[in-house]
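User: Hi! I'm working on a homework problem where we have to compare a predicted structure to a textbook description. Could you give me the structure for the chain below?
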Amino acid sequence: MQVVKTVKIPLHYSTTKRKLSILDKLTARLTYGVALWSRLIEEYDVEDRSRLRSRALEARVKERTGLSAGFVQCCGDKALWMWRSYRELHRTWAKTVKMAESNKEEEWLKKLLRREPKTPLSSGSRHKIPIWFDYRVGQLERAKRIKMASHVIRVATLKRGEWVTIPLNPARYHIQLLGRGTAKSFQIVKKGSKYCVHIKIEYGVLDAPVAGVLGVDLGVRRHAATVLLSGEKPNKLTPRSFLTIRDGEKKNRLDGLNRLVSELQRAEKYDTLRRLRHKRKQVAEYFDRLSAKRLADISGGCLLVVGYSKGVKYRNFKGNGKKKLRKALTRWSYTRIIRFIVEERAERGLSTAVVDERWTSKTCWKCRSRHTLRMNQSTLFCPHCGMTFNADYNAALNIGLPYLAKAARRRAEDEPAQQTEDEQAREIVARKLGSQHPSRGWQLTFSQNHLLGPVNRSSTRPMSMSLFFKRAPIASKSQVDSGAGLERMLYFFTKSSWSL
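Assistant: Happy to help. Predicted structure tokens:
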């Protein structure tokens, strides 16, 4: 599996004013080149790279900007990418408008018409547009004569045949990643008065064996609800197949920051507020990354299928009568969470599938009926087959079931004898049901080889897992081993499911 990561490395503090002036002039000219290409793409309706490489168009841009052929083509690729993104957004918007017109939703239609996507650079550009430098116009090298910097970039200037060497200031993580993979290209990005370099690094990872499917349903109140499926059919669902990941610590930290910001605003301490303007975003990203790592650890040896709630914030507009839901959705960064999950699993050699989760919470996973009822926010009842089930787990089952047969047919690249102890430890291996608790019933614990460790009965640490369920008449131990009565048990697990 090929993993592609982009790292952000600032320029070295010893960079001279002369080199910064060269970068200012170069990035300004490249922004002008992208703007010229954008006008030509709109004028000649260019849709692919074959038409973009027309000599007549390249000659016009080269004559107006004075850039070399390599820079002209890099600017054209950037402008073409911008127009492809715009056309895709416009197709989605037009489809949504058509649906609103057919459903005669006048209020929603008015808001959609005001949200029509604009063409690239239609209102100008306040910032410089970065382009990807290839081997013709820029190179990343190890510093041989410069002792203060370990890596430098060599960039072609506006003068023909003249190159400038700019030192970088990478951290230890950047150096390790640069030594692990190959740098394909880079961008020079200016934010405010500071420059940084975004380097695209590609490296290979061995594919891990797949023994099952883990369906994941992301939620607002619960971070994620997962269901582990193995075999061709989910005929042996047991309590150990279900897991809920919570993010209460993230909520508490963000609530504390919100209270602090409110107090500072009332006190009119604007200098302190200016220093804290990115703090909430950084805290949210940190906890989202931790949750993605935990989910990647517990899903070792499985094909992870996660549901994507596309357009859920877009549809819950102001004035639709769902004020509480809209307030809860403001903190839910589901796109960033999915991106972190894909990145963390790719580093472990595991593939991730992202699917549309529309109707997964309302469709009964057993009889596929959509005419279901919600007993409460987290409990689903199907009148067609009489099943009572947790709504989040029901959605996770609907997300993962279509991929169950595909994962069962997949084979690992390595033989089992060649697997290391770390790879074997990643597999989710559960113990048998433990001894009967005197007050809480049967307890399910994980083996010592599991990455998250055993359950600590006397502690409620975030890294421990435990599941307690009531005794008869809900379900007996034989029913749990055979999977019978699972729907009946999960009706009582709505508020006491597994938690990380």
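For your comparison, note the following. The CA atoms of residues 78 and 131 lie 6 Å apart. Residues 408-500 have pLDDT under 50 and may be disordered. Good luck with the assignment!
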